[in-house]
Amino acid sequence: MSTPFYVSPQQAMADRAEYARKGIARGRSLVVLQYADGIVFVGENPSRALHKFSEIYDRIGFAAAGKYNEYENLRIGGVRYADLRGYTYDRDDVTARGLANVYAQTLGTIFSSAAEKPYEVELVVAEVGETPEGDQIYRLPHDGSIVDEHGSVAVGGNSEQISTYLDQQHREGMSLAEGLKLAVQALSRDTNGTQREIPAERLEVAVLDRTRPQARKFKRIVGRQLSRLLEADGAATEAESSAEEGPDEE
């Protein structure tokens, strides 16, 4: 009788982590960063139906890189958690930190379970506050750990290179147009250092805008408004674009 093959727990977890990281790296990168009036989500996404960014609750947005079917299941679970908590207690009791804890427990359980493969996803949960100091951004890797981010964060693809660039270029008080341009510049940098062009129609952009009078702060930026922001040189064009906002898109 042959001796059963033994793999140490440390090696097994390392193999699972490497499997998940490779799956996430195959996807396109996305960027979440703070600007003066809120938080902007920017990613390269040619699909108009399979979104990387979504609204979870009034002030909370969700971003994900990796396998669509896996992070879509997590998004739906997050919406159900938020709706139930807001209905049972109060809408103000639904927070990004609470949602991040729920996602962390789910991802951690899946990652440590030998019965199923780890999720190939990396999440960002963001909440816009009344002031920039109240903004919250949490990054959740595949293993369920929580990283409290400030200013900017990149996930998926070559996220390390993009994060380094953002750390050097991002500053507080940027306008939406400036933040959007910085995110696009970061995403367009290839691993070999060259710069490529990402057309507006291949971008998915959304914001959590604290200045919106509605309780729901999430809005997608599309069409002419996106083009004008990418071409804007100052706050005047940005204000003009905001004035032309149409109905809410989800």
Description of the structure:
There is one protein chain. The chain has about 250 residues and is of the alpha+beta class. Helix content is about 40%, strand content about 20%. It contains seven helices and ten strands. The chain has helices spanning about 10-25, 70-90, 95-110, 160-170, 175-185, 225-230, 235-245; strands spanning about 30-35, 40-45, 55, 60-65, 120-125, 135-140, 145-150, 150-155, 205-210, 220. It has a five-stranded antiparallel β-sheet with strand order 8-1-2-9-10. A five-stranded antiparallel β-sheet has the order 3-4-5-6-7. Helix 4 (about 160-170) packs antiparallel against helix 5. The longest helix is centred in the first third of the chain and has 21 residues, at about 70-90. The chain starts with 8 loop residues before the first helix and ends in a 7-residue tail after the last helix. The relative contact order is 0.17. Residues about 235-240 have low confidence and may be disordered. Keywords: Cytoplasm, Proteasome. Pathway: Protein degradation; proteasomal Pup-dependent pathway. Component of the proteasome core, a large protease complex with broad specificity involved in protein degradation. One of its GO terms (cellular component) is proteasome complex. It comes from Streptomyces longisporus.
